[in-house]
Amino acid sequence: LGRISPEKGVLELAESFVRLARDGGVPGLELRLAGYLGAAERPYLKRIETLIRGAGLANRYSYVGEVDRAG
User: Fold this and answer.
1) Pick from 43, 42, 36, 45: which is nearest to 66 by CA?
2) What is the pTM (predicted TM-score) of this model?
């Protein structure tokens, strides 16, 4: 949970997810991202999603959007 941006290390998280889910034998592992996504960071998220789809793990990933802090 946090802003979707390179300085938060989301791509590195996604790369680790791919390794663990595909090569590490972690059954049922899923990745859910949540957080603010500014217009400038949309290509960054697209790169992450392309990596996950390319690994055949799209069904184990979701971006749930921003957090509703109002409750």
Assistant:
1) 36
2) 0.87
